[in-house]
Amino acid sequence: MLSALLLIPLVGIAAIGFLPGTIDPKICRRISLVAILATLIWTIWIGIGFDPTAPGMQFSEFVPWVPWMGFNYHLGVDGLSMPLLVLNGVLTAISIASTPGDLHRPRFYYTLMLLINIGVTGAFVAQDLFLFFGFYELEIVPLYFLIAIWGGKRRGYAATKFLIYTAISGFCILASFLGVVWLSGTGSFDYAPLRSAGLPLGTQILLLVPLLVGFGIKIPFFPFHTWLPDAHVEASTPVSMLLAGVLLKLGTYGLLRFGVGLFLDAWAYLAPWLAVWAAVSALYGASCAIAQTDMKKVVAYSSIAHMAFILLAAAATTQLSLLAAVCQMIAHGLISALLFFLVGVVYKKTGTRDVNVLRGLLNFSRGLPLIGSLIILGVMASAGLPGMVGFIAEFLVFRGSFSLFPVQTLLCMVGTGLTAVYFLLMVNKVFFGRLSEVTIDLPQVQWSDRIPALILSVVIFILGIQPNWLVFWSEPRIVSLVTEFGQPQAGLLTPGNGMGDDRDLGFQPIKSEVTQ
Amino acid sequence: MTDFLLANSWFIPLYGAIGAVLTLPWSLGIIRRTGPRPAAYINLLMTLAAFVHSSIAFWAIWGQPTQKLVFNWFSAADLTIPLTLELSPVSLGALELVTGISLLTQVYALGYLEKDWSLARFYGLMGLFEAALGGVALSDSLFLTYCLLEVLTLSTYLLVGFWYAQPLVVTAARDAFLTKRVGDIILLMGIVALSSYGEGLDFSSLQNWVTTAPISTWTATWVGLTLIAGPTGKCAQFPLNLWLDEAMEGPNPAGIMRNSVVVSIGAYVLIKLQPIFILSPIAEDVLIVIGTVTAIGTSLMAIAQIDIKRTLSHSSSAYLGLVFIAIGLGHVDIALLLLFTHAIGKALIFMSAGSIILTTSNQNITEMGGLGSKMPATTIAFVVGSASLVACLPLGFFWTMQRWLNGSWEIHGWLLAILMFVNALSAVNLTRVFRLVFLGSTQPKTRRAPEVPWTMALPMVGLTVVTLLAGIAPRLWPLWLSPVAPLADVDSPLISLAMPLLISSGVVGLIIGSTLELRRAWSRPMQRSMRFLQDLFAYDFYIEKIYELTVVMAVSLTSKATTWFDRYVVDGAVNFVGLATIFSGQALKYNVSGRSQFYVLTIVIGTCVLFVLTNGWLF
């Protein structure tokens, strides 16, 4: 079942590869869209067959691969990966559909897009550490080319920076993975047996730190983030959407799956500091976003701020906060993809993203009224306005983490408040006011520029009004992520608020929360 | 039939929302052939339906016990969020007021915005406004209330920013959103905290939870203060009061809603939260302090304004300040009555002001005059509205005050002093505005001033009649919200003197207002002290300047510093490492000489260095 998710895009790649080099780019797009839609339908089919209440991994596939090295081809999905698979399918489809029709070197481009899809899907379903690592690395190369070939002016710099950062990230992760396999003495990279290895705390911390750095680069957190704004600014719109919507989620997925899953004791020990890290990252990202003048950079820094909430939720490891982490991943994926898409449309029509140049784009007859309205909607969703998916995700994050880390949670909420500041400043400058002379004769906005945004907006609305669908796959057994194989953590997973009867909002030193 | 309508009262706020959605084809320009009018008619129809429905429901619930409707909206892990609605005479009464004023406003807007090309967008936003307000009126869940307050914040932003091409509107919309958002985020912090303490977020379950007093006073104070912050922003109370005055740049029909029901909704939420404040006396005191500061400060600001809408909006803040004091004292029923009388009176005055603005195309009262004989309906509306806001005998505010000061409640001297002060200044200001606008000689801008068209006159006259009758409500109000029958203390001298003193304060205000020397031409007082005072009030005590120099500057400096740090320190370090690598590579390439002796030498030296480094402890 799951291998098909990897095979269908591969068939698409093969089909594109056999086309002649002079082929119309639109045909390439159509073929890859068909491939990706088929994958999406298959994903949804798996989702329908997925039993949210069943324990453990489902649809498992196990084939020994290199037995003497301990590598296995082991796939499976659970409540954590299922929603992310769907998100991946939806956003890849929208990215491919919103690629311009007159692209140069189309065969290579769509091959890379499909390769990224395979890499991400593989990473989400891999149940073997080495397999995960392989897919994780697989997605880096296509992205490098996508930025370096179809990017903006400084694409070479941005792409190389991305490559170096992500290579270091991969190195850290590999070090941690090798360490856990060797030190636990299981001799196998298979995920499930490693969880019950029960390493001593010191060793766990030693292994968790490189993992945190590795995924911290990918997500990214301060101070490992500087590749992201550059990559976003130089990448073309569809690539930006994929990068923000899906690829960053690999990092948070890795944190939850391997950081929490393999090193629970160390995770609990470091949790207060992880929450502090989240708060710092959130405030830092928001603070940087206020002063940016490039619309894409504003969205990129807001991405850093919003991804930090996932770390906060993951640090708390209450039932609710783990669920919240999944919700926030989905919410951020949808909202940032929407915003990057719309900023891309503005750039396409006006030729600039500078907030000091653009003005009055909401103008009804000569501006971009619908795109402007959708951006207002998108930034409101990002700022956590109720009725849209961003709000419920953030509320769950804060509600899930507050009882354990009140101060850090409140700081993150200040970060949410700042979201409104930087986005509103941007919207006010770009869309309100009198239409500026620079942008007076704008080309017509096609429906193809609107439909992807409309689809994303509708999904954002529906999941905001009916969030039960958002947590449908994850809710019943999200806890199994932490408890199933590891030692149950007394303080971390009480079904209530996780704080017992100590209900004081007080500001005790954060260390005292740690349960040993 | 009435039972069916009552049981389905939850649907009433949705009329507005449906109306808002149905305007989309016109506001997005999909349907252009018909012009935007059909969108307006659809919304009017929906609002009419909402009004009729809520009236029937109100009539049906009168004298009935409170009903609760619970929708299970979301549950995950240990968190369940039900959306609870309360059907009681209070909530349905509030709903009827909201839909009623919304209906009148929308009819009024048909005339006021007759030639505006984005009429459809306006009606869509009004529908959203009405839906959110109606939802808050019915909501019995703090969570739902918060969500709807946020929707209100958004629609305020969009309504203030309606004419988005004007520079003042742009800043006004931004400030309105951000000011309210500050309050909302703090409120959200309180909600997250309350939710973490267990017990759910329904107002009624919170009430029960409070009686067991499970948290320390310190925590309770913090939670109480966060809960106050949201309504402080919504009700335009100090220190979050400036947005309302700026928001007057938006279209006037939205201003009618905003000054009457929207500012009230924040206080309505406070009334619902009032039982929680018993946990923390400090929170109650803070409410009183905020209310007092705002009531006195904004009353003073109002008398120095020359923009007709701004002066009236400052007075809205002042009256809401009184409501805050009443809630802080625990006089919840009085707070509700104050909201009711103020909402109706202020809506009427704003309709009148809108008529003046539309007719004269001007908001500056120093350029008006002599409209009294030309616009009779507008004049009567203004007079009736003003009279209902100062303690004038047969009208609403008088009876509300009478109810407050009749000895049922504990009244302190300072409270009476504040009431007299606000009443007197309100009288001064309204008389001043009346004289400038309606009396005196005709000015160039008021020379041709016909009465407004029927679409505006009809709701105005209708509301005038309602205002005249509204005095009945405070007299008959059964004090539902006060848990115990208030004490009766009729004998104290303060009580017996209270009403006469209050009325005389109004008379004094009237006299001062009528004898005040009015300057039509823009001239400055001679004395330096007077000039200082005028500037101080006219520029809102320079609060905006203070904000600019503190909060705004701090945020902007921090963000600039962070960006600098990001660019030159964090990213700089990365680039430095990169450059260092490249340079060292460039430098080292000269070692590639092709002589094997040199390579052997390098290897030997390298090995030695490594050996020393790794085994340095041996020596």
What would you say this structure looks like, in words?
The complex is a heterodimer of chains A (516) and B (619). Chain A has one domain. Chain A is 66% helix and 3% strand. Chain A has helices at residues 2-17, 25-49, 81-97, 106-125, 129-138, 140-150, 155-184, 191-195, 201-218, 227-234, 237-262, 264-290, 295-316, 319-350, 369-382, 389-402, 406-431, 451-465, 480-483; strands at residues 58-66, 71-77. Chain A has a two-stranded antiparallel ribbon with strand order 1-2. Chain A is globular. The model of chain A is unreliable at 484-516 (pLDDT under 50). With 619 residues, chain B is mostly helical. Chain B has 3 domains: 1-140; 141-538, no CATH class; 564-618, no CATH class. Helix content of chain B is 71%, strand content 3%. Chain B is built from 24 helices and 2 strands. Chain B has helices at residues 2-7, 12-22, 24-27, 37-61, 89-112, 119-138, 142-160, 167-196, 203-211, 217-234, 242-246, 252-273, 281-303, 308-329, 332-360, 376-389, 396-405, 413-438, 454-469, 472-476, 493-515, 528-538, 543-588, 596-614, and strands at 67-76, 79-87. Chain B has a two-stranded antiparallel ribbon. In chain B, a hairpin with a 2-residue loop joins strand 1 and strand 2 (79-87). In chain B, helix 15 packs antiparallel against helix 16. The radius of gyration of chain B is 30 Å and the shape is globular. Chain B starts with a helix and ends in a 5-residue tail after the last helix. The chains are: A mainly alpha (516), B mainly alpha (619). Chains A and B meet through helix 12, helix 14, helix 15, helix 16 and helix 17 of A and strand 1, helix 7, helix 8, helix 10 and helix 23 of B. Chain A: Its main location: membrane.
Q: What is the H/E string of chain B?
A: HHHHEEHHHHHHHHHHHHHHHHHHHH
Provide the number of structural domains of chain A: 1
Number of self-contained structural domains of chain B:
3
Number of H/I helices of chain A: 19
Q: How does the major sheet of chain B shape up? A: 2 strands, antiparallel
Beta-strand proportion of chain A: under 5%
**Helical content of chain B, roughly?**
over 70%
